[in-house]
Amino acid sequence: MTVFLVIIVLALLAVTGWQISKIFQLSKRPDADTSEVANDKDNKLHGILNLAFLIFLYVISIYCFWEYGRFYLPEAASEHGGEYDTLMFVSIALIMVVQVFTQGLLHYFAYKYKGEKTKRALFYADNDKLEFIWTIIPVIVLAGLIIYGLFTWSDIMNINEEEDPLVIELYAYQFDWRARYSGEDNTLGKANVRFIEGVNQLGVDESDSYGQDDKIVTELHLPVNRPVLFKFRSQDVLHSAYFPFFRAQMNVVPGMITQFGFTPTITSEEMRESEYMVDKVKSVNEERNEKNKELLAQGEPTLDSYEFDYFLLCNKICGQAHYNMQMKIIVESEEDYNKWLEEQPTFGSTMAEQSEDADRPEDTAGDQPPATEGEEDAEGEDNTEQTPQETNAVAGVDNEQN
Ligand SMILES: [Cu+2]
After folding, report:
1. What total number of domains does the chain contain?
2. Which positions make up the signal peptide (predicted)?
3. pLDDT, average across residues 368-376
4. How far does the centroid of ligand 1 lie from the alpha carbon of residue 295, in Å?
């Protein structure tokens, strides 16, 4: 009913507008120019409006660069990142120069050659030389840009196996990440979603000896200046592994393994101390403090103060909690990295613990195994939390395949 009333009101308003315009027409002086054809005055006005619009475009562009420039990422934290940024900068600079120049000409010509009673158009059929010039220049520039881009692409995408990269699997599922380190042998054990059961969240094949020393973790630690080769696997839908600070991104596709390799060059600590990050953290915390005042007034819990960490994001809208799908990345010295990795349990030991738990008599089965402590404890809890989700996801995969 409301919709019907709204439609009637809108129709009546339209009729009113039409009637008012008719009254205006009738009330015009008889000697006024009622011709539909634009006269010199109209043309001049539109010429000037064209110039004004050009100025508006330039001003708003400069404003956007000025105001939103602070959202640019800091210096790339990976070896190939510099190359990537240069390619991006060269492409954008070229596009901007051509755009500013041609847009200016377009509006200026619309003004300069506006219609005037005394002006006559020149009949000018064609000019081979001009056509040649405006064809050959874009051809050369675009070919140059494409060839440069292809070289950069193959430089970044080709993985040099001779550098002995550290092999890490990144496993995506709705809605989180797991990392699997390949252990002493630097070879990942085989895995398949069909093997997912209990603590074996990633479906690692227990019969594959390469998998026994693999380490599955919830936080990605990387040694600085060591090439890393990531192998990506998805449990459910299409995800995308996005490392903005390292200028890397790769689709994570169910049913296949994709890969990307890079060398981190700036540790988390160094990045935190950089001028860019100090300023950024300060401004984020200022905003949070402002927000906290409001929250306190409303009696709600306040926000924690922000500290910078690298992170891995999902860059494909993969479902409801997609926005929350991220993993902390810590780039540290080789020493710290080795120390951390040492503390992580291997897949073999986790599976052994599980079967021990299952064999135990019921009254003690709920007890924590004695070896578990500190961080592992937290991870254990996390695993339990994920279990229902995991089971659903696996069921989903099975249904799909049946
Ligand atoms: Cu995702």
Report:
1. 1
2. none
3. 39
4. 31
Give distance in angstroms: CA of 64 to centre of ligand 1: 30
Structural domain boundaries enclosing 314: 165-358+379-401
Is there a domain that residue 134 lies in?
no
Distance 243 CA to ligand 1 centre (A): 13
pLDDT 10s digits, 325-370 = 999 999 999 999 999 988 888 877 777 777 777 666 554 444 444 4
Query: CA-to-CA distance for 65 and 57, rounded, in angstroms?
Result: 12
| Tokens 């995991």 belong to residue | 390
Residue 25 domain-assigned (yes or no): no
Between the CA of 241 and the centroid of ligand 1 the distance, in Å, is 8
* 369 is a domain residue: no
CA of 176 to the centre of ligand 1 (A): 7
Q: Using the mean position of ligand 1's atoms as its centre, give its distance from the Cα of residue 233 in Å.
A: 12
Is residue 15 classed exposed, middle or buried when 0-12, 13-18 and 19+ CB atoms within 10 A define those classes? exposed
Q: What is the CATH number of the domain that holds 346?
A: 2.60.40.420
b vs e for 242-271, b when ≥16 Cβ sit within 10 Å of the residue's Cβ? bbbbbbbebebbbeeebebbbbbbbbbeeb
Q: Is 86 contained in some domain?
A: no
pLDDT score of 388: 37
